[in-house]
Amino acid sequence: MSTTDSGHTVKKFDEELASLRGVVLRMGGLVEEQLRRALKVLADGDAEGALDVIKGDLEIDLIELRSDQEIAQLLARRSPLGVDLRTVLMLSKSVTDIERIGDETKKVARICVRLPDNGRELRTLPYMHEMQVLGEMVSRQLAGALDALARLDLARADEIRRNDDAVDAACNSLLDHIAGHMQEAPHTIPAAVLLLFATRALERIGDHTKNLTQYAVYLVEGRDVRHRKAVRAARA
Amino acid sequence: MVRHFHIDNPTMKNDSSTAGVHIPSARAIESVGAGGFRSDLLRSTSKSSAIKAEVRGLDFHYGGFRALKDVSMQVQANEVTALIGPSGCGKSTFLRCFNRMHDLYPGSRYDGEIRLYPDDVNLLAPDIDPVETRIRIGMVFQKPNPFPKSIFENVAYGLRITGEKRRQVIHEKVEKALRDAALWDEVKDRLHQPATSLSGGQQQRLCIARTLATEPEIVLFDEPTSALDPIATASIEELIIELKERVTILIVTHNMQQAGRVSRYTAFMYLGELVEFGETSRIFTRPAKRETENYITGRFG
């Protein structure tokens, strides 16, 4: 017997964990792609493309079902402990957040379909550039968080987590701009209301992305770094 | 985008500077526990923790073989402490030091101390009577081993060797021990039948009753359910959890889930050493030592 870091004595356990990780990361990759497409669709006013994004979310839902099944099997049959338990728990929570990111992405695509004239007039709105910048920011955050999760790279995870404040600030600034312009140009209100929702959806994606980085910390170090404000209040 | 986990097993690595998993040192984890909120939030309201026994620098030799190496730990009163580790790691040897079972075999040698509180006596001191020790510190073995006597006489046996002669007292104590072992209702109408007529699970509870009859302070369980089916196992585990209100319990088990279900503290032993000791809730979710992690996750091999 040695204490080297080999795989499990039961090889099948390694295979099952690897399979689950693969499924979750594939799901992450798909959602990342969906978000990129949704943002492009919104920028281009591409209603047909938007329908594709909406349809694409179905695949993500199916992957959620499959990974939840694998998680239940792993818990029931392997009774994981230590780092294995943390891995399964972390992947299970990640799946939920990734699926929600998919839902928020779908909302962005839906908004494109519902915009007057599919949003072809959007380019004339003065805050559209800001919206695009926000979209790219959220997209980069998501890609970074998924990388950090895949590589269990806590430095990267920490960087992404800290960036979330900047995302929130950008969202708030954009919301202000949209509301301000609504007063100046009331005829843009129907489109602007929908864009407020889109901004909110991007903010939520940012929040779910932050959750993913926190799960990475839990997996590697066993520390739960969520809800710091609540914990500080409880300690005070 | 296709992503793969950077490392196949997110287990602890020696080189924490790689992009892979950072290894929390024992001290880092302890500092999280001590200064962090997390353990405070997770920690259930613990009753005042009295120490029932303290092991200090315990070495044990079978002839020339050093089976235990400088083991030190505290046993909390009225709690269940599980001893886990691979076969041959010394956990049963360690358990048997508490009631001087090794005295029965020539060539064995104890060094160090096991202090029993509140008396503050060293159980390993030569002037301590091993027979008296075994009355104060009871033991339940892997296989049920009732004496070839009646159910009643099995439980009365310990009382008789302590010199109890009053029939009424013996009757009362036998009934109480059988009730405490959750066996009374099943055997009260056949107390004088042979103990061997009972099922395996009942025989094991009879052995527990036999141990309880002399009102021990500590009960040692050496893989008490490995010969039982899941239902009998559950009833023994339930019993262990109930008994800790009255006695302090040490249990050796190969079944990690069992350790998780019944114990508050867990000691992981390997090659005669105590590798890690701590609350079961932490040991099973974020052990500090790599050997513990490898063992509980099934990576030893």
UniProtKB/TrEMBL annotation, chain A:
Residue intervals of the PhoU domain: 24-111, 134-214
One Gene Ontology cellular component: cytoplasm
One of the GO BP terms on file: negative regulation of phosphate metabolic process
One Pfam family, short name: PhoU
Source taxon at top rank: Bacteria
Keyword Lipid metabolism: no
Residue stretches spanning the membrane: none
Localization: Cytoplasm
Record's keyword terms, sorted: Cytoplasm, Phosphate transport, Transport
Subunit structure, interactors included: Homodimer.
Family: Belongs to the PhoU family.
Function, in words: Plays a role in the regulation of phosphate uptake.
Stored NCBIfam families: phoU_full
Full protein name: Phosphate-specific transport system accessory protein PhoU
From TrEMBL, chain B:
CDD domains: ABC_PstB_phosphate_transporter
GO cellular-component term (any): membrane
MF terms in GO: ATP binding; ATP hydrolysis activity; phosphate transmembrane transporter activity
PROSITE patterns per UniProt: ABC_TRANSPORTER_1, ABC_TRANSPORTER_2
GO biological process: phosphate ion transmembrane transport
Keyword Nucleotide-binding assigned: yes
Domain ABC transporter: 53-296
Nucleotide-binding in keyword set: yes
Keywords assigned: ATP-binding, Nucleotide-binding, Phosphate transport, Transport
UniProt cross-references to PANTHER family, sorted A to Z: ABC TRANSPORTER I FAMILY MEMBER 17
Protein name per Swiss-Prot or TrEMBL: Phosphate ABC transporter ATP-binding protein (PhoT family)
Originating species: Pseudofulvimonas gallinarii
Upper taxonomic lineage: Bacteria, Pseudomonadati, Pseudomonadota, Gammaproteobacteria, Lysobacterales
